[in-house]
């Protein structure tokens, strides 16, 4: 879906409208609380029982083998495999009562990426232009670019469960609002973005002429091929020009400029270096960044789909892969943003498409469980060391303050200063509010 060439097609010339364009939906009465959001999408569905919603008094069949440890917030113990995360729980808000009805990965992930529920819970849900756009695409429409960067950037994976998961692009809003997608591994020694390097012998002065600029982009990326024509192409030549000629934008993507100690601090994994790249892009002015933990749902190198199988037992994968990476990278991102004075203006949103069954199955794993799960916020706009909502004694259903994905979407838009009631129109000119949920006021700082 997103080849290296499509990275440019969909990103460099199609991703944004210039910041001088009108921004309908941006209400003066909705004051932004943050400048940037980093959405750390945990494909596969993390186990709330082994991370941020422990049930030490539940029966053995529910608790699992992992124990809890204390955190810096006395009332907020977390899983024993997250000792570094325990040190920063005074910077986060935990929501333990998220719930919905989608039990299949593609349906639930689409819901988690857009805030809109599909009509049916279908594991074969296909990515079509009739479905709702990604959060970042809506943000792209109403916030525009900052410092020349596309407002919506995603990397390093296109997630899929068999077929490509819907909700990762602009859908019926048009390619103008698609993400600027980075399909390379930031942990690779040769990670680079050659598409942002001018051809040999050219300098900014030589491409100042608009017609010559259009010719360069056309010849280098084939961006005007008929199959990729869409509204917004002409508007985005100026953005492409700015990205090709801006040293500051190119340097934002140059992760090799980071000191070795910083790179090691995040962890030399694809996810770790992706989170480091997200911090660099926040520094440069990006508004909405999607970082995908893994391209597929489970396994020893995939996401959080931990049913338990003979060759893929749940808890060794949790202990040796999923939880160590999370404990290495998530608290580092929080502290790094804080140390650089960026945490108050940046919101980290950590969430999967659902949780895992409270009761362990007969394969020593946990199955899909959208009925009640946990998400995490950290940074600007939300309270610190705070828990909202609760699950019942076995972690099966919300017991207080139930939250739906629509409420999460309303809260994200509100924090960026976008009225959740703002409407966009689909291919049939039918208006839809960008969120049908309510802002979770009690988690706001």
Description:
A hairpin with an 8-residue loop joins strand 2 and strand 3 (78-79). The protein has helices spanning 4-12, 60-63, 83-86, 105-114, 135-143, 210-221, 237-245, 247-252, 260-266, 270-284, 314-339, 405-415; strands spanning 36-41, 68-69, 78-79, 92-98, 152-155, 160-161, 163-164, 180-181, 288-292, 346-351, 355-356, 368-369, 373-379, 386-388, 390-391, 398-400, 423-425, 431-433. The longest helix is centred in the C-terminal third of the chain and has 26 residues, at 314-339. It has one domain (4-443): Alkaline Phosphatase, subunit A. With 445 residues, the chain is an alpha/beta fold. The relative contact order is 0.22. The strands form 6 sheets. Strands 8-5-9-1-10-13-4-14 form an 8-stranded mixed sheet. A two-stranded antiparallel sheet has the order 2-3.
List the main descriptive attributes of the protein structure presented here:
disordered N terminus, 8-stranded mixed β-sheet, alpha/beta, Alkaline Phosphatase, subunit A, 445 residues
């Amino acid at each position: 879906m997103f080849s290296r060439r499509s990275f440019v097609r969909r990103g460099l010339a199609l991703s944004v409208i210039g910041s001088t364009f009108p921004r309908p939906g941006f209400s003066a009465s909705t004051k932004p609380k943050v400048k940037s959001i980093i959405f750390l999408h945990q494909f596969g569905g993390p186990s709330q029982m082994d991370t941020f919603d422990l049930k030490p008094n539940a029966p053995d069949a529910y608790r699992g083998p992992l124990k809890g440890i204390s955190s810096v917030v006395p009332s907020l113990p977390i899983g024993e495999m997250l000792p570094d995360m325990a040190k920063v729980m005074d910077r986060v808000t935990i929501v333990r009562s998220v719930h919905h009805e989608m039990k299949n990965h593609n349906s639930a992930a689409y819901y988690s990426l857009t805030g809109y529920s599909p009509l049916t819970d279908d594991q074969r849900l296909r990515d079509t232009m009739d479905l709702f756009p990604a959060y970042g695409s809506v943000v792209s429409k109403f916030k525009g670019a900052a410092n020349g960067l596309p407002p919506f950037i995603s990397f390093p994976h296109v997630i899929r469960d068999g077929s490509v998961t819907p909700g990762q692009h602009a859908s019926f809003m048009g390619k103008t609002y698609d993400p600027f997608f980075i399909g390379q591994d930031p942990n690779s020694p040769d990670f680079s973005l050659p598409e942002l390097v001018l051809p040999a012998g050219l300098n900014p002065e030589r491409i100042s002429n608009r017609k010559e600029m259009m010719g360069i982009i056309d010849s280098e990326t084939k961006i005007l091929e008929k199959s990729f024509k869409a509204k917004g192409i002409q508007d985005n030549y100026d953005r492409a020009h700015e990205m090709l000629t801006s040293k500051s934008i190119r340097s934002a993507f140059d992760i090799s400029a980071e000191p070795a100690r910083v790179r090691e601090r995040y962890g030399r994994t694809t996810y770790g270096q992706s989170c480091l790249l997200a911090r660099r892009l926040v520094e440069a002015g990006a508004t909405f960044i999607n970082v995908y933990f893994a391209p597929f749902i489970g396994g020893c190198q995939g996401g959080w789909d931990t049913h338990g199988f003979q060759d893929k037992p749940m808890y060794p994968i949790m202990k040796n892969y999923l939880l160590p990476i999370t404990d290495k990278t998530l608290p580092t991102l929080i502290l790094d943003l804080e140390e650089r004075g960026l945490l108050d203006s940046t919101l980290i949103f950590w969430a999967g498409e659902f949780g895992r069954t409270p009761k362990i199955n007969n394969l020593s794993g946990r199955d899909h469980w959208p009925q009640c799960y946990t998400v995490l916020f950290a940074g600007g706009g939300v309270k610190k060391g705070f828990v909202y909502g609760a699950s019942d004694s076995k972690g099966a259903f919300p017991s207080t303050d139930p939250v739906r994905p629509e409420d999460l979407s309303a809260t994200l838009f509100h924090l960026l200063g976008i009225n959740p009631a703002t409407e966009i129109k689909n291919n049939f000119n039918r208006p839809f509010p960008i969120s049908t949920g309510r802002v979770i006021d009690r988690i706001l700082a």
